[in-house]
Amino acid sequence: MGLLESIQGPSDLKALAPEQLPELAGEVRDFLVAAVSRTGGHLGPNLGVVELTIGLHRVFDSPRDRIVFDTGHQSYVHKLLTGRQDFSRLREAGGLSGYPSRAESEHDVVENSHASTSLSWADGLAKAFALRSERDRTAVAVIGDGALTGGMAWEALNNIAASDRPVIVVVNDNERSYAPTIGGMASHLATLRTTREYERLLDWGKQSLRKGGAPGRLAYETLHGVKKGLKDIVAPQGLFEDLGLKYVGPVDGHDTEAVEHALRRAKSYGGPVIVHVITQKGRGYQPALADDADHFHAVGVIDPETGEAQASSGASWTSVFSREITEIATTRRDVVGVTAAMQIPVGLQEFADAFPDRVFDVGIAEQHAATSAAGMAAGGLHPVVAVYATFLNRAFDQVLLDVALHRAGVTFVLDRAGVTGPDGPSHHGMWDLGLCRLVPGLRLAAPRDAETLREELREAVAVEDAPTVVRFGKGKVPAAIPAIARAGHADVLEGEAWSAGDDVLLVAVGALVPRALEVARRVREHGVGVTVVDPRWVVPVDDALVDLAGRHSHVAVLEDGGEVGGVGWALAAALRSRRDATTVQVFALPQRFLDFGERETLLDEAGLAPQDVARRVVEAVAQQARSSASSATAEESPTTSTPRSAAFPSR
Ligand SMILES: Cc1ncc(C[n+]2csc(CCOP(=O)(O)OP(=O)(O)O)c2C)c(N)n1
Ligand SMILES: CC(=O)[C@@H](O)[C@H](O)COP(=O)(O)O
Ligand SMILES: [Mg+2]
């Protein structure tokens, strides 16, 4: 049995001799490459924190001490060392989560995968320990250099530094988010990293003086002068110590002995301390180290020998956006791109390659991205802020009161809208429709295919006096879905509405249009007429759509956002305000946290499986017919049903 298999929890790890730790680290790396290449996941980040995590669980006493991983994507080693070694279904329903999970282990604290929150968690934990007189407990936060560029981290540091509570901030500095980390913080960490050279220089100085036989006093004076001189040149500790934080480091994050020594030093201070650990993302796995893009930050299924990803066919939503925004930028010199440390994942790399000075990476700082975009717009530019949908959440106030209040022409492009799948509840892009609906003047489009994405993106960047949003899902874009007619501002996709009129209007939103067409097919098998429309611009819900809905007896809405504030929610409210008798069924994501798993399965489980939606629509129509019949009998008068849908002018 290898060392890793012998470890069921931190106590087994603490029992190992220091000289066994490098061997254990090697076994962990072999395990990670073998397991994650089969399932996909955050291979690079976890390869970089093997020795660090071993040190954390040897020095601190989890779960009495609390170890918080920022973002949480680098917690696989933590899981391996705390009794979870079955990675066969990592990030799959029923398997291990790709992030900490309190349901999995008492050693796990924070499940939120949004970056830069760990220091606030640690500050809160430390305050609780102090007030509950649990002074033997330590709060430890492991935060990456990328996450340290997020504003929340500095709000927390400001509080942590002002206290004497034992908070250990471990900066896992691998010099990268996905790409190399940007900004002043990155530069400062780089300066501190040179201290490693400084320490080596110092060691060399000590050895040389000793070898040279210099007398004690002279040797000390010389060395002190060298140390003082070097320190000012290569290692200004400034920032953290000026804040009032003890600084330990920089530490070689792949030297188990040095890591453990530094963590023990930090623990012994008994107050707030920064431990600056230098690591390498993808450490020990050449295909990751050779990957200039992001050192295998997040991989799909790969060949463990070569790191080669499985071939995939078809264009992604992101690639369509990437091409189109670069096209637009060619003629629109005012258009600029903004990314929050995700230039490649959000599709701005092609734009940046073509126009390097017109794409801005602001670090993991979505709030700054939004408000600086308002500034850009005020200066005559048209910013396109590209983020994953879920990450717009934290910039809501900035969208509302910096962009919309000032009627700034800013376009937000939300990738990964809807259910994303393996990353779980804090990654599903299900909040943006509800949040954006709250913003006066904001307009949001949900394209259904590549052509509508291109059209709606161009329409969005043409708006100069209000925020616009274009949202699309994760993965491959579907084949073209042409319209057969227009109804107001909506595309009619299917329907015999110009015949005797259809019973049901099915409103299909964005990436769920293919599902809606399957629903319509199944409903028609029951002899129920269905017209399928795609509103395209879904925030706000426009009067033409409400008019159209009001000309049907029953409306069903299919969308991949949270129910509250969604398209169906707004359409039903508009019909109610008109005292319209049309009945509305809303098929949206339930307003709760959805677990991780396979995207299509999660949508089905959320009640959006075509067969389930169709069944419920047919039942509703039948129920409506029964109600109409019974009320007609009661009144002995002809039914007063909503006038059938009017004929559409053909497109
Ligand atoms: C608010 C927010 N924005 C963007 C992301 C996407 N994201 C996940 S990990 C990551 C990079 C993190 O870099 P770092 O903190 O240095 O950790 P490392 O991967 O280098 O260990 C980003 C941008 C996120 N999780 N949260
Ligand atoms: C941890 C994090 O936020 C990202 O790495 C995210 O997991 C990437 O998601 P995609 O794989 O959908 O790009
Ligand atoms: Mg990093």
Automatic annotation (TrEMBL):
Record keywords, A-Z: Isoprene biosynthesis, Magnesium, Metal-binding, Thiamine biosynthesis, Thiamine pyrophosphate, Transferase
Top enzyme class: transferase
Binding positions (thiamine diphosphate): H73, S113, H114, A115, G146, A147, N174, Y285, E366
GO molecular function: 1-deoxy-D-xylulose-5-phosphate synthase activity
Binding site for Mg(2+): D145, N174
Entry cofactors: Mg(2+); thiamine diphosphate
Gene3D superfamilies membership: 3.40.50.920, 3.40.50.970
Domain Transketolase-like pyrimidine-binding span(s) in chain numbering: 315-479
SUPFAM superfamilies linked to this entry: Thiamin diphosphate-binding fold (THDP-binding), TK C-terminal domain-like
Top-level division of the source organism's lineage: Bacteria
EC number: 2.2.1.7
Region (Disordered): 625-651
Pathway assigned in UniProt: Metabolic intermediate biosynthesis; 1-deoxy-D-xylulose 5-phosphate biosynthesis; 1-deoxy-D-xylulose 5-phosphate from D-glyceraldehyde 3-phosphate and pyruvate: step 1/1
Catalytically driven reaction(s): D-glyceraldehyde 3-phosphate + pyruvate + H(+) = 1-deoxy-D-xylulose 5-phosphate + CO2
Cofactor note: Binds 1 Mg(2+) ion per subunit. Binds 1 thiamine pyrophosphate per subunit.
Keyword Metal-binding assigned: yes
Summary of subunit composition and partner proteins: Homodimer.
Biological role: Catalyzes the acyloin condensation reaction between C atoms 2 and 3 of pyruvate and glyceraldehyde 3-phosphate to yield 1-deoxy-D-xylulose-5-phosphate (DXP).
Entry-linked HAMAP family: DXP_synth
Similarity-based family: Belongs to the transketolase family. DXPS subfamily.
Protein name: 1-deoxy-D-xylulose-5-phosphate synthase
Gene: dxs
